[in-house]
Structures are given as C-alpha cells and as structure tokens.
Amino acid sequence: MLATELISLQNLFSLRFALPVILLVSLWTWESVRPFCENSPGRGRHALRNITIAVVNAIVTGALFGASTVFVADWTVENSFGLLQFTDQHAIGRFFAGLILLDLWMYVWHRLNHHIPLLWRFHRMHHSDSRMDVTTATRFHIGEHMISAGLRLLLIPLLGVSIWQIVAYEMGVVAMTHFHHANISIGRADHVLRWLVVTPDMHKIHHSRWQPETDSNYAVVLSIWDRIACSFRMREDVTTIDFGLDEFENERWQTIGGMLKTPFANSADLSAPKAAEPEIVGEDRSV
Ligand SMILES: [Zn+2]
Ligand SMILES: [Zn+2]
User: Fold this and answer.
1) Residues with Cβ < 8 Å from 89, sequence gap 6 or more?
2) Above 90 in pLDDT, residue 31?
3) 182 near 30, Cβ under 8 Å?
4) Subcellular localization, per the record (predicted)?
5) 3-class DSSP state of 197
6) Which residue has the higher pLDDT, 67 or 3?
7) Residue spans per domain, the chain
C-alpha cells in the first residue's frame, strides 16, 4: 500500500470516529430545540448511559477486530477474491455495488437478529430503550457487535469488498442511524425521503413495543429492502407509538449493568407482556 493511500485511509478512519460526535452534538441540539416527543426529566442520564455503552463497544471491538478486518480486506483485494470481481469492472460502479451489497447484508443481519432467539437476546437491548432519541443509535450490546464483526470477517472475502468500501459504508450507517433514531420530525419530507432511505418516522415504527411493528422496517440505510421483502410498515399517526419492550419495563434494565445483563435475563426476571393490541388508527403499508 502506498504511503499516500495510507495517509488518506488514516484520514478516513479519523473522520469515521469524529462523525458520531458531530452527529450526536448537532442532533441533540435539534432535539433540544424542536423535539418530536417532549423531553422529560432524566434525558441527560439516559444519554450518558447509552454513550458509555457505545464508547466501551468501540474500544473493545476496535481492539479485537480492527486489525483483522483491515488484514482480511487487504488480502481480499490483493487476491481479487469475492463476488464483486465478477461484476462491473468500472471502479466507481464496483465501489457502489459493494456498498449496496453491504446494505443488503445489514438488512438480512438485522432481520436474523429478530428471528433467531439467541441473537434476539442481544438485540433486545437496543429495543428495550423506552425513550428513543439520537443516543439510542449507539445502544447495542457488545455481544451483538462481536458476533456482527466476526461474521463480517467471512463476508468481506465472500463479497470482495475493500477497506475503503467498509469504512465508507460504516460512515453511511453512522450518519443514517443517528438521523433515524433522533427524537425529531422532518414533517412531510419524511413521506418523500422514505422512498429512498430509512427516515425517523419509519424507524420509530421499528421501535414500537407492539410486536407486528417491532418485526418490520429492518432496513438500515436504503428503505427498498423492506419494500422488496414485504416488511415495510407505517402508521398514519406516529405520535401514538409506545417505545420499548413490555418485558423490560422495569427501570433496572435501563442502567448500564441492567443493559449488559439483558441477554441473560430469563422469564422469571421479566415483566409480563401486555396482552392487548394497541388501537392503531390509519395503519398504512403503502406510504
Ligand atoms: Zn431491531
Ligand atoms: Zn433502532
């Protein structure tokens, strides 16, 4: 690898780590000035807990998987390995094809997290947040990150993606997840934008505690995967959504210790799920 390429890649890595900070500060400010749900007491404590989880996750996964991810991606490119070698030979076309394939994998991976009981044990920590805001974008169990990073080491040679594509896609994911978890509304623009990407209203549905809604809208960046796989769902009035999971209603699941214990909780530890279905006015799968 040339020194100039190395410097540029280092700059890209720096931007990759600066981006969540910039997004957290700007979207937190937007939420403070014009929130979608009224800000209630405890907002700062909630943010601090979610961000602490994120910092620990970044340090641990970076230490365990950072070097191996770069090594596997460089090996893949040097040996012309993977699916993308058989596609468009034009560099730009292949670059974007890689990003689209990585986004398709994220859709599949997210859906598996909801349908495989072991994976759901980890992923439910993200859904147990009963007050959704920009910091919810950073709230994932370290176990989920480790399984995801491990599988990615297999995915890189399978697809044939480079470290540039991985870092570029990660930056897209960071930008989009902070945006669509934020406690904001973009009004009518949401209707238009969600034909292309996952919007705040679309992802709010995914955080509903009503399971048919929890098990919908799995896409991370491009919304088309939900439309193709018939998992797209909306409701007319998103202000009526109740966020969180019934079983994790107790405040003890919102502490850092409680969050880390979430995958290991058994039915005896959990609150009973509410039986009643919420009354949904204006359910609409087409918009
Ligand atoms: Zn989910
Ligand atoms: Zn989410």
Assistant:
1) none
2) yes
3) yes
4) Endomembrane system
5) strand
6) 67
7) 15-284
Identity of the amino acid at 168? A
Q: For residue 222, is pLDDT > 80? A: yes
CA angle 138, 193, 128 (to 5 degrees): 30
The pair of structure tokens assigned to 79 is: 């040996």
- In a 13 Å sphere around the CA of 283, the CA atoms on its Cβ side amount to 9
Instruction: Find, among 217, 236, 263, 49, the residue nearest to 135 by Cα.
Output: 49
Calculate mean pLDDT across residues 222-239.
96
Residue 17: what pLDDT?
82
Q: What percent of the chain has pLDDT over 70?
A: 91
User: CA-to-CA distance for 201 and 182, rounded, in angstroms?
Assistant: 10
Residue 154 host element (H or E): helix 142-159
Amino acid at site 78: E
Say whether pLDDT at 277 is over 80. Answer: no
| Ligand lying closest to the C-alpha of residue 107 | 1
Cβ atoms 225, 104 nearer than 8 A? yes
Name residue 284's beta-bridge partners: 234
User: Which residue reads 């909801």 in tokens?
Assistant: 114
Q: How far, in Å, is the centroid of ligand 2 from the Cα of 39?
A: 19
3-state secondary structure of 209: coil
Report how far ligand 2's centroid is from the alpha carbon of 204 (Å).
8
Q: What pLDDT is attached to residue 134?
A: 98
Q: Is the pLDDT of residue 257 over 70?
A: yes
**What's the pLDDT at 280?**
55
* Contact in structure between 199 and 175 (CB atoms under 8 Å): no
pLDDT at 72 over 90: yes
CA of residue 168 to ligand 1 center, whole Å: 22
Rounded distance from Cα 127 to ligand 2 centre (Å): 7
